[in-house]
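Methods — Computational structure assignment.
A single polypeptide chain was analysed. Its primary sequence is given first, followed by the predicted tertiary structure written as C-alpha coordinates.
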Amino acid sequence: MTVGRTTKVISRCSCQRPVLVGAGFENGGMNGALSDRLAGLSRELEGLLPTVRGCAGGEVLAAQRELESLSRMVMATQVELDAAVADGGAQSEHGYASVRAMLSDVHRLPPREATAREQRREQLASRRSLSGEALPPRLPETARALAEGAIGAAHVETIAQVMRDVPASLDPAGCALVEEQVAGFARQYSPRETGVLAAQLLARLDPDGQEPADPEAARPDNTLYLGRSRRGGLKLTGEFDAAAEAVIRAMVDALAKPSPAVDGVPDERSVAARQGDALVDAAHQVLGFGELPDCGGERPHVAVTVELDELERRLRGAMLDYGTTLHPETARMLACDAAVIPAVLKTRSAPLDLGRSRRTLNAALRRALVIRAGGCCEMPGCDRPASWCEGHHRRHWIDGGPTELSNLLLLCRRHHVLVHRPGWDIHLDPDGHPVFTPPAIIDPERRPRSSRMNC
Protein backbone atom coordinates (compact mmCIF):
# COMPACT_ATOMS: atom_id res chain seq x y z
CA MET A 1 0.00 0.00 0.00
CA THR A 2 1.33 3.41 -0.91
CA VAL A 3 2.15 5.82 1.88
CA GLY A 4 0.45 9.06 0.87
CA ARG A 5 -0.07 12.38 2.57
CA THR A 6 -3.43 12.64 4.32
CA THR A 7 -5.67 15.14 2.59
CA LYS A 8 -6.41 18.18 4.72
CA VAL A 9 -10.14 18.31 4.12
CA ILE A 10 -12.34 20.13 6.58
CA SER A 11 -15.96 19.15 7.10
CA ARG A 12 -18.46 19.72 9.89
CA CYS A 13 -20.15 17.30 12.21
CA SER A 14 -23.49 18.07 13.85
CA CYS A 15 -21.67 19.95 16.61
CA GLN A 16 -20.23 22.27 13.96
CA ARG A 17 -16.63 21.44 14.81
CA PRO A 18 -14.06 21.00 11.99
CA VAL A 19 -12.70 17.47 11.65
CA LEU A 20 -9.88 15.89 9.69
CA VAL A 21 -10.92 13.63 6.85
CA GLY A 22 -8.50 11.03 5.51
CA ALA A 23 -7.74 10.63 1.82
CA GLY A 24 -10.50 8.69 0.06
CA PHE A 25 -13.23 9.44 2.64
CA GLU A 26 -16.29 11.42 1.70
CA ASN A 27 -17.70 14.37 3.60
CA GLY A 28 -20.60 13.75 5.92
CA GLY A 29 -22.48 15.81 8.47
CA MET A 30 -23.59 13.37 11.17
CA ASN A 31 -21.75 12.05 14.21
CA GLY A 32 -22.06 8.48 12.91
CA ALA A 33 -20.47 9.48 9.63
CA LEU A 34 -17.64 11.14 11.49
CA SER A 35 -16.99 8.00 13.52
CA ASP A 36 -17.08 5.90 10.37
CA ARG A 37 -14.55 8.12 8.62
CA LEU A 38 -12.17 8.04 11.59
CA ALA A 39 -12.57 4.27 11.83
CA GLY A 40 -11.71 4.01 8.13
CA LEU A 41 -8.60 6.12 8.67
CA SER A 42 -7.64 3.83 11.55
CA ARG A 43 -8.03 0.75 9.32
CA GLU A 44 -5.90 2.38 6.65
CA LEU A 45 -3.09 3.01 9.14
CA GLU A 46 -3.47 -0.51 10.49
CA GLY A 47 -2.94 -1.84 7.00
CA LEU A 48 0.23 0.22 6.65
CA LEU A 49 1.80 -1.06 9.86
CA PRO A 50 3.13 -4.39 8.50
CA THR A 51 4.78 -2.59 5.57
CA VAL A 52 6.74 -0.06 7.64
CA ARG A 53 9.80 -2.19 8.32
CA GLY A 54 10.06 -2.96 4.62
CA CYS A 55 10.85 0.66 3.78
CA ALA A 56 14.44 1.46 2.89
CA GLY A 57 16.70 4.36 2.02
CA GLY A 58 15.20 7.76 1.49
CA GLU A 59 11.66 6.35 1.67
CA VAL A 60 12.10 5.78 5.41
CA LEU A 61 12.83 9.44 6.14
CA ALA A 62 10.09 10.64 3.79
CA ALA A 63 7.54 8.32 5.41
CA GLN A 64 8.71 9.35 8.88
CA ARG A 65 8.23 13.02 8.01
CA GLU A 66 4.73 12.34 6.63
CA LEU A 67 3.73 10.32 9.68
CA GLU A 68 4.97 13.03 12.05
CA SER A 69 2.90 15.58 10.15
CA LEU A 70 -0.12 13.27 10.25
CA SER A 71 0.17 12.73 14.01
CA ARG A 72 0.13 16.49 14.52
CA MET A 73 -2.95 16.85 12.30
CA VAL A 74 -4.63 14.13 14.34
CA MET A 75 -3.85 16.16 17.47
CA ALA A 76 -5.54 19.20 15.91
CA THR A 77 -8.62 17.06 15.25
CA GLN A 78 -8.44 15.83 18.82
CA VAL A 79 -8.51 19.44 20.03
CA GLU A 80 -11.77 20.09 18.17
CA LEU A 81 -13.35 16.82 19.32
CA ASP A 82 -12.46 17.60 22.95
CA ALA A 83 -14.07 21.01 22.46
CA ALA A 84 -17.17 19.35 21.00
CA VAL A 85 -17.39 17.19 24.12
CA ALA A 86 -17.11 20.27 26.33
CA ASP A 87 -19.69 22.20 24.26
CA GLY A 88 -22.17 19.34 24.42
CA GLY A 89 -21.82 18.82 28.16
CA ALA A 90 -21.00 15.11 27.81
CA GLN A 91 -18.82 15.28 30.91
CA SER A 92 -21.74 16.39 33.08
CA GLU A 93 -24.06 13.86 31.51
CA HIS A 94 -21.70 11.09 32.60
CA GLY A 95 -21.12 12.50 36.07
CA TYR A 96 -17.74 14.18 35.62
CA ALA A 97 -16.88 17.62 36.95
CA SER A 98 -14.64 18.41 33.98
CA VAL A 99 -13.59 17.20 30.54
CA ARG A 100 -10.13 16.61 31.99
CA ALA A 101 -11.47 14.15 34.57
CA MET A 102 -13.48 12.32 31.93
CA LEU A 103 -10.47 12.08 29.61
CA SER A 104 -8.41 10.54 32.40
CA ASP A 105 -10.96 7.79 33.02
CA VAL A 106 -12.27 7.09 29.51
CA HIS A 107 -8.89 7.11 27.76
CA ARG A 108 -6.75 6.03 30.74
CA LEU A 109 -4.63 9.17 30.55
CA PRO A 110 -2.25 10.28 33.31
CA PRO A 111 -3.34 13.57 34.91
CA ARG A 112 -0.52 15.54 33.28
CA GLU A 113 -1.53 14.46 29.77
CA ALA A 114 -5.22 15.11 30.44
CA THR A 115 -4.32 18.59 31.68
CA ALA A 116 -2.22 19.25 28.58
CA ARG A 117 -5.17 18.27 26.36
CA GLU A 118 -7.48 20.58 28.26
CA GLN A 119 -5.00 23.44 27.86
CA ARG A 120 -4.65 22.80 24.13
CA ARG A 121 -8.45 22.84 23.82
CA GLU A 122 -8.67 26.18 25.61
CA GLN A 123 -5.93 27.71 23.45
CA LEU A 124 -6.54 26.19 20.00
CA ALA A 125 -10.18 25.18 19.63
CA SER A 126 -12.60 27.33 17.63
CA ARG A 127 -15.11 29.11 19.87
CA ARG A 128 -18.57 30.62 19.90
CA SER A 129 -19.80 33.71 21.69
CA LEU A 130 -22.85 33.68 23.96
CA SER A 131 -24.91 34.84 20.99
CA GLY A 132 -23.66 31.92 18.88
CA GLU A 133 -21.22 33.94 16.78
CA ALA A 134 -18.22 31.98 15.51
CA LEU A 135 -14.95 33.12 17.12
CA PRO A 136 -11.36 32.20 16.18
CA PRO A 137 -9.15 30.23 18.59
CA ARG A 138 -7.29 32.20 21.22
CA LEU A 139 -4.06 31.31 19.40
CA PRO A 140 -5.25 31.21 15.78
CA GLU A 141 -1.88 31.01 14.01
CA THR A 142 -0.74 28.26 16.38
CA ALA A 143 -3.98 26.33 15.73
CA ARG A 144 -3.48 26.69 11.98
CA ALA A 145 0.12 25.46 12.16
CA LEU A 146 -0.91 22.42 14.21
CA ALA A 147 -3.77 21.61 11.80
CA GLU A 148 -1.30 21.72 8.91
CA GLY A 149 1.04 19.33 10.72
CA ALA A 150 3.80 21.94 10.86
CA ILE A 151 4.23 22.02 14.65
CA GLY A 152 3.77 19.65 17.57
CA ALA A 153 2.56 19.62 21.15
CA ALA A 154 5.83 20.95 22.60
CA HIS A 155 5.70 23.88 20.19
CA VAL A 156 2.16 24.64 21.36
CA GLU A 157 3.26 24.63 25.00
CA THR A 158 6.17 26.95 24.18
CA ILE A 159 3.96 29.42 22.30
CA ALA A 160 1.35 29.42 25.07
CA GLN A 161 4.04 30.20 27.64
CA VAL A 162 5.39 33.01 25.48
CA MET A 163 1.94 34.57 25.22
CA ARG A 164 1.62 34.44 29.01
CA ASP A 165 4.89 36.38 29.21
CA VAL A 166 3.86 39.11 26.76
CA PRO A 167 4.19 42.57 28.39
CA ALA A 168 0.90 43.75 29.86
CA SER A 169 1.30 47.05 28.02
CA LEU A 170 0.91 45.36 24.60
CA ASP A 171 -2.52 45.85 23.03
CA PRO A 172 -4.56 42.96 21.47
CA ALA A 173 -3.32 43.75 17.96
CA GLY A 174 0.28 43.65 19.20
CA CYS A 175 -0.35 40.35 20.98
CA ALA A 176 -1.78 38.91 17.75
CA LEU A 177 1.36 39.95 15.87
CA VAL A 178 3.57 38.34 18.52
CA GLU A 179 1.61 35.08 18.30
CA GLU A 180 1.82 35.12 14.51
CA GLN A 181 5.58 35.66 14.55
CA VAL A 182 6.28 33.06 17.25
CA ALA A 183 4.08 30.51 15.44
CA GLY A 184 6.21 31.30 12.39
CA PHE A 185 9.35 30.53 14.41
CA ALA A 186 7.81 27.21 15.46
CA ARG A 187 7.26 26.18 11.83
CA GLN A 188 11.02 26.34 11.26
CA TYR A 189 12.70 25.77 14.63
CA SER A 190 12.60 23.31 17.53
CA PRO A 191 10.49 24.13 20.61
CA ARG A 192 13.59 25.18 22.56
CA GLU A 193 14.90 27.35 19.74
CA THR A 194 11.44 28.85 19.33
CA GLY A 195 11.44 29.77 23.02
CA VAL A 196 14.85 31.43 22.73
CA LEU A 197 13.84 33.46 19.67
CA ALA A 198 10.54 34.40 21.30
CA ALA A 199 12.31 35.57 24.47
CA GLN A 200 14.55 37.77 22.33
CA LEU A 201 11.46 39.14 20.56
CA LEU A 202 9.82 39.99 23.90
CA ALA A 203 13.05 41.63 25.07
CA ARG A 204 12.93 43.92 22.03
CA LEU A 205 9.29 44.77 22.74
CA ASP A 206 10.11 45.62 26.36
CA PRO A 207 13.81 46.66 26.32
CA ASP A 208 13.75 48.12 29.84
CA GLY A 209 12.50 44.84 31.29
CA GLN A 210 11.50 44.40 34.90
CA GLU A 211 13.16 46.19 37.76
CA PRO A 212 16.16 44.24 39.06
CA ALA A 213 15.28 41.89 41.90
CA ASP A 214 17.36 40.91 44.90
CA PRO A 215 19.82 38.13 44.04
CA GLU A 216 18.63 34.62 44.84
CA ALA A 217 20.93 32.30 46.75
CA ALA A 218 21.86 28.99 45.18
CA ARG A 219 20.84 25.76 46.86
CA PRO A 220 24.11 24.14 47.92
CA ASP A 221 24.77 21.05 45.99
CA ASN A 222 29.30 19.36 43.47
CA THR A 223 27.60 20.23 40.25
CA LEU A 224 26.55 23.76 39.33
CA TYR A 225 24.06 24.85 36.70
CA LEU A 226 23.67 28.44 35.56
CA GLY A 227 20.12 28.86 34.28
CA ARG A 228 17.61 31.59 33.63
CA SER A 229 14.82 32.45 36.05
CA ARG A 230 11.33 33.36 34.88
CA ARG A 231 12.03 36.93 35.94
CA GLY A 232 14.98 37.06 33.57
CA GLY A 233 17.76 36.80 36.17
CA LEU A 234 20.36 34.14 36.88
CA LYS A 235 19.16 30.96 38.56
CA LEU A 236 21.73 28.71 40.22
CA THR A 237 21.14 25.04 41.02
CA GLY A 238 23.69 22.46 42.05
CA GLU A 239 25.01 19.97 44.58
CA PHE A 240 28.31 19.98 46.48
CA ASP A 241 30.06 17.41 48.65
CA ALA A 242 31.03 18.00 52.27
CA ALA A 243 34.53 19.27 51.50
CA ALA A 244 33.22 21.78 48.99
CA GLU A 245 30.45 22.77 51.38
CA ALA A 246 32.99 23.70 54.04
CA VAL A 247 34.86 26.01 51.65
CA ILE A 248 31.74 27.60 50.25
CA ARG A 249 30.14 28.15 53.64
CA ALA A 250 33.33 29.73 55.00
CA MET A 251 33.37 32.19 52.11
CA VAL A 252 29.65 33.00 52.20
CA ASP A 253 29.42 33.23 55.98
CA ALA A 254 32.29 35.72 56.06
CA LEU A 255 30.41 38.05 53.71
CA ALA A 256 26.80 37.33 54.67
CA LYS A 257 26.79 38.79 58.15
CA PRO A 258 24.02 41.34 58.80
CA SER A 259 25.11 44.88 58.10
CA PRO A 260 25.42 47.20 61.10
CA ALA A 261 22.24 48.98 62.11
CA VAL A 262 21.67 52.38 60.55
CA ASP A 263 19.92 54.92 62.81
CA GLY A 264 18.78 52.06 64.98
CA VAL A 265 17.26 50.10 62.05
CA PRO A 266 18.76 46.60 61.76
CA ASP A 267 19.60 44.86 58.50
CA GLU A 268 16.21 43.55 57.30
CA ARG A 269 17.50 41.27 54.56
CA SER A 270 16.56 37.60 54.82
CA VAL A 271 19.25 34.97 55.22
CA ALA A 272 18.79 33.98 51.57
CA ALA A 273 19.17 37.59 50.41
CA ARG A 274 22.31 38.10 52.50
CA GLN A 275 23.85 34.90 51.16
CA GLY A 276 23.00 35.88 47.60
CA ASP A 277 24.61 39.27 48.11
CA ALA A 278 27.63 37.51 49.65
CA LEU A 279 28.12 35.38 46.53
CA VAL A 280 27.98 38.47 44.31
CA ASP A 281 30.45 40.29 46.60
CA ALA A 282 32.82 37.31 46.47
CA ALA A 283 32.65 37.28 42.66
CA HIS A 284 33.46 41.00 42.57
CA GLN A 285 36.48 40.46 44.81
CA VAL A 286 37.79 37.51 42.79
CA LEU A 287 37.37 39.34 39.48
CA GLY A 288 39.00 42.45 40.89
CA PHE A 289 41.93 40.92 42.68
CA GLY A 290 42.08 37.17 42.06
CA GLU A 291 44.14 35.19 39.58
CA LEU A 292 41.84 33.26 37.27
CA PRO A 293 42.55 31.28 34.08
CA ASP A 294 41.63 32.69 30.70
CA CYS A 295 38.02 32.34 29.56
CA GLY A 296 37.66 31.96 25.78
CA GLY A 297 41.05 33.57 25.22
CA GLU A 298 40.49 36.55 27.53
CA ARG A 299 40.99 37.27 31.19
CA PRO A 300 37.73 36.98 33.13
CA HIS A 301 35.69 40.17 33.09
CA VAL A 302 32.17 41.50 32.96
CA ALA A 303 31.52 43.00 29.52
CA VAL A 304 28.63 45.36 28.87
CA THR A 305 27.87 46.28 25.26
CA VAL A 306 26.03 49.56 24.67
CA GLU A 307 25.47 51.71 21.62
CA LEU A 308 27.52 54.92 21.62
CA ASP A 309 24.46 57.15 21.18
CA GLU A 310 22.83 55.38 24.13
CA LEU A 311 25.91 56.05 26.23
CA GLU A 312 25.82 59.71 25.25
CA ARG A 313 22.10 59.89 26.14
CA ARG A 314 22.91 58.64 29.65
CA LEU A 315 22.25 54.97 28.91
CA ARG A 316 18.76 53.60 28.40
CA GLY A 317 19.78 49.95 28.14
CA ALA A 318 22.70 47.60 27.54
CA MET A 319 23.60 43.96 26.98
CA LEU A 320 25.91 41.63 28.85
CA ASP A 321 28.59 39.62 27.08
CA TYR A 322 26.39 36.49 27.19
CA GLY A 323 23.29 38.10 25.70
CA THR A 324 21.24 39.17 28.71
CA THR A 325 19.59 42.57 28.40
CA LEU A 326 20.32 44.83 31.36
CA HIS A 327 17.87 47.19 33.00
CA PRO A 328 19.21 50.76 32.53
CA GLU A 329 19.77 51.26 36.25
CA THR A 330 21.80 48.06 36.46
CA ALA A 331 23.88 49.08 33.44
CA ARG A 332 24.56 52.52 34.93
CA MET A 333 25.66 50.87 38.20
CA LEU A 334 28.14 48.60 36.40
CA ALA A 335 29.42 51.55 34.37
CA CYS A 336 30.43 53.36 37.57
CA ASP A 337 33.52 51.15 37.90
CA ALA A 338 34.36 50.08 34.38
CA ALA A 339 37.05 50.39 31.76
CA VAL A 340 35.66 51.53 28.41
CA ILE A 341 36.89 49.56 25.40
CA PRO A 342 35.51 51.31 22.30
CA ALA A 343 33.80 49.24 19.63
CA VAL A 344 32.52 51.15 16.62
CA LEU A 345 29.39 49.47 15.22
CA LYS A 346 28.04 49.47 11.68
CA THR A 347 24.33 49.21 10.99
CA ARG A 348 22.43 46.46 12.82
CA SER A 349 25.22 46.19 15.42
CA ALA A 350 27.86 44.62 13.18
CA PRO A 351 31.36 45.46 14.51
CA LEU A 352 33.40 47.67 12.19
CA ASP A 353 36.44 48.61 14.27
CA LEU A 354 37.54 47.51 17.71
CA GLY A 355 39.66 49.17 20.35
CA ARG A 356 41.96 47.11 22.60
CA SER A 357 42.83 47.52 26.25
CA ARG A 358 45.95 45.44 27.02
CA ARG A 359 44.61 42.64 24.87
CA THR A 360 46.18 40.59 22.11
CA LEU A 361 44.70 40.58 18.64
CA ASN A 362 43.01 37.24 19.26
CA ALA A 363 41.20 38.62 22.29
CA ALA A 364 40.07 41.69 20.36
CA LEU A 365 38.84 39.57 17.47
CA ARG A 366 36.93 37.34 19.85
CA ARG A 367 35.36 40.38 21.46
CA ALA A 368 34.27 41.56 18.01
CA LEU A 369 32.68 38.17 17.41
CA VAL A 370 30.86 38.35 20.75
CA ILE A 371 29.51 41.81 19.93
CA ARG A 372 28.34 40.73 16.49
CA ALA A 373 26.77 37.57 17.91
CA GLY A 374 24.84 39.43 20.60
CA GLY A 375 26.61 37.56 23.41
CA CYS A 376 25.68 34.00 22.46
CA CYS A 377 26.10 31.31 19.81
CA GLU A 378 25.36 32.72 16.35
CA MET A 379 23.17 29.78 15.31
CA PRO A 380 19.61 31.20 15.39
CA GLY A 381 17.65 29.93 18.36
CA CYS A 382 20.70 28.97 20.43
CA ASP A 383 21.28 30.81 23.71
CA ARG A 384 24.58 29.21 24.73
CA PRO A 385 26.66 32.09 26.16
CA ALA A 386 29.73 33.37 24.36
CA SER A 387 32.05 31.93 27.01
CA TRP A 388 30.90 28.45 25.93
CA CYS A 389 31.51 29.15 22.25
CA GLU A 390 34.47 28.84 19.91
CA GLY A 391 35.47 30.34 16.60
CA HIS A 392 34.65 28.56 13.36
CA HIS A 393 36.20 29.41 10.01
CA ARG A 394 33.58 29.58 7.25
CA ARG A 395 36.35 28.84 4.81
CA HIS A 396 38.52 26.40 6.69
CA TRP A 397 41.89 27.67 7.83
CA ILE A 398 43.65 24.65 6.31
CA ASP A 399 42.12 25.66 2.95
CA GLY A 400 43.53 29.16 3.20
CA GLY A 401 40.66 30.78 5.05
CA PRO A 402 41.85 33.91 6.88
CA THR A 403 41.43 34.40 10.62
CA GLU A 404 39.43 37.58 10.34
CA LEU A 405 35.95 38.64 11.35
CA SER A 406 34.39 38.19 7.92
CA ASN A 407 35.47 34.54 7.88
CA LEU A 408 34.64 33.67 11.49
CA LEU A 409 31.55 32.45 13.32
CA LEU A 410 30.93 32.17 17.06
CA LEU A 411 29.39 28.75 17.67
CA CYS A 412 28.78 26.50 20.65
CA ARG A 413 30.29 23.03 20.54
CA ARG A 414 27.05 21.36 19.37
CA HIS A 415 26.49 23.75 16.49
CA HIS A 416 30.18 23.85 15.59
CA VAL A 417 30.02 20.08 15.05
CA LEU A 418 26.68 20.44 13.24
CA VAL A 419 27.87 22.92 10.60
CA HIS A 420 30.82 20.67 9.75
CA ARG A 421 28.33 18.07 8.49
CA PRO A 422 27.44 18.02 4.77
CA GLY A 423 24.72 20.27 3.41
CA TRP A 424 25.15 23.45 5.45
CA ASP A 425 25.65 26.69 3.52
CA ILE A 426 26.78 29.80 5.41
CA HIS A 427 27.21 33.31 4.07
CA LEU A 428 27.23 36.85 5.47
CA ASP A 429 24.40 39.27 4.76
CA PRO A 430 25.20 42.84 3.59
CA ASP A 431 25.55 43.97 7.23
CA GLY A 432 28.08 41.27 8.06
CA HIS A 433 25.81 38.89 9.99
CA PRO A 434 25.90 35.12 9.26
CA VAL A 435 23.01 33.44 7.46
CA PHE A 436 22.75 29.65 7.84
CA THR A 437 20.97 27.49 5.27
CA PRO A 438 20.39 23.97 6.66
CA PRO A 439 20.51 20.75 4.62
CA ALA A 440 17.26 19.33 3.22
CA ILE A 441 17.13 16.61 5.86
CA ILE A 442 16.58 19.33 8.50
CA ASP A 443 14.41 21.62 6.39
CA PRO A 444 13.16 20.31 3.02
CA GLU A 445 12.57 23.91 1.90
CA ARG A 446 16.12 24.92 2.93
CA ARG A 447 14.94 28.24 4.35
CA PRO A 448 17.80 30.56 5.39
CA ARG A 449 18.18 31.29 9.11
CA SER A 450 19.63 34.67 9.92
CA SER A 451 21.76 35.13 13.02
CA ARG A 452 20.28 38.62 13.35
CA MET A 453 17.29 36.92 14.99
CA ASN A 454 19.59 36.39 17.99
CA CYS A 455 20.64 40.06 18.26
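Note: The first strand starts at residue 9 and ends at 12.
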